[in-house]
Amino acid sequence: MALDRHPAYRLTQAQAADLLGVSTARVAELVGQGRLTPVAKYAKAGLLRADVERRSLERWRPGDPTWLTTTQVAEVLGVTQPRVSQLARRGFLPYEQAPDGRRVFRPGQVRVIAQARRERFHAGRGG
User: Fold this and answer.
1) pLDDT tens per residue across span 69-81
2) Model confidence at 1, in pLDDT bands (50, 70, 90)?
3) pTM for the structure as a whole
4) Residue 103 near residue 85, CB atoms below 8 Å
5) CA distances in angstroms from 121 to 74, 113, 117, 118, 126, listed in the order given
6) What secondary structure letter does DSSP report for 92?
7) What is the pLDDT of residues 20-51, one digit of tens each?
8) Long-range contacts of range 9-13, CB-CB < 8 Å, 24 or more positions apart?
């Protein structure tokens, strides 16, 4: 199955609006202007998640809850900022490059990694 056809990689206009911090009417405008490309004309979840995230990243500003900064990731993972940078450089922590050159991270991915770290820690302690 092609990734663009898999539901996990697609968003509804409402989900895209939430991710972009705009109204669904604005999302419809972006589609009409060709700034967001629909995958399927009449599909309920007809926008590619990657396309919407790319658009979100173009609009990123410090404080945007859609993406986490290195400092925020360090807090979530309970590590230092240099350790977050090291994990990102080594490919253990997926990130995107913001327009100003900073690394930004998807909150959902960071939560999954944080949970895995906690489970590994507790397993190592015998419980």
Assistant:
1) 999 999 999 999 9
2) very low
3) 0.64
4) yes
5) 17, 12, 6, 5, 9
6) S
7) 888 989 988 988 888 888 876 655 657 888 88
8) 9/48, 9/49, 9/50, 10/39, 10/43, 10/45, 10/46, 10/47, 10/48, 10/49, 11/45, 11/47, 11/48, 11/49, 11/52, 12/44, 12/45, 12/46, 12/47, 13/46, 13/47
Two structure tokens written together for 105: 């991270």
The reply to whether 118 and 79 lie within a common domain is yes
What CATH number does residue 86 fall under? Answer: 1.10.1660
Q: Give the whole-angstrom CA distance, residue 56 versus residue 49.
A: 10
Count of domains observed in the chain: 2
Residue 105 lies in a domain: yes
Residue 10: its pLDDT value, please?
A: 81
Which residue type is seen at 2?
Answer: A
CA–CA gap between residue 8 and residue 28 (Å, rounded): 21
pLDDT tens by residue, 99-110: 888 999 988 889
What is the domain range of residue 10? Answer: 3-58
